[in-house]
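seq as requested:
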Amino acid sequence: VQLQASGGGSVQPGGSLRLSCAASGLTLDYNMVGWFRQVPGKEREGVACISTAGGRTDYVDSVKGRFTISRNTAEHTVWLEMHNLKPEDTAVYLCATALTAQECTWWIPAYHYWGQGTLVTVSS
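C-alpha cells:
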C-alpha cells in the first residue's frame, strides 16, 4: 500500500490550493483519511479528517472555515481544499489512512499508512 499526496506549491497569503491524496493497494473510499502537517522542529499536527461512516469531518480549530476535506469517489482520492491561506499554514502536508478506526481521530498510531507529503509554502 502506498499513499501519495500532491498539489502543494507556493502561494501568497489569501491564496488557495487543493491537495489530493491517492492510494495504491487499497481504496480510500472506505477508509478513514486524515491530513496532517509537519513543520521542522514541531510535532505533526492533525489538520482535517473524514470518517468512513457518513463522511463526517473534523478540523483543527486554526483551519475551520478555510479548509475542506472531501472524497472524490470518481478518482478514489481525498481532497483537501485550502482557502485564505496564511503564512502559518506553511508546512509539509501528509495524508494518512486507517484500516480499523472509522471515526476521525488525531491519534497518530491509529493511522496505518502515510504518504510522503507535499510542501505548501505561503509567503508574500
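The chain has a mean pLDDT of 95.
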